[in-house]
Write a structure and sequence with these properties.
By secondary structure, this protein is an alpha+beta fold. It has two helices and five strands; from the N terminus they run E-H-E-E-E-E-H. The protein has a three-stranded antiparallel β-sheet with strand order 1-4-3, covered by helices on one side. A two-stranded antiparallel ribbon has the order 2-5. The longest helix has 19 residues. The model has no long low-confidence stretch (mean pLDDT 87).
Amino acid sequence: MSRKKRALQPLPRTHDGRRIWMWRLLPGEIPLAHQEVEAMADLADYLRDVGYVCESRPSVTIKHGAHPTMVLMFKAYPANGKEKRILGGNKS
């Protein structure tokens, strides 16, 4: 099963070069621990599709309000040829 190619949206950076991934929290009573796993899975898919590799464990914070959001901050670099072959990524 192939995934649709994602439009490359540059991820914002912090002052120290970390990337920022914002993930809207799911409504209802889904535990935050599970939502964190979902957010990291979506982040890994995105990075694979755009040809990057995460090089640090993301730090996680929650922004509360009308639209609660999980904010992941991490370092990433462009995947080399071997990493691209191993990770696969979007084939389209």
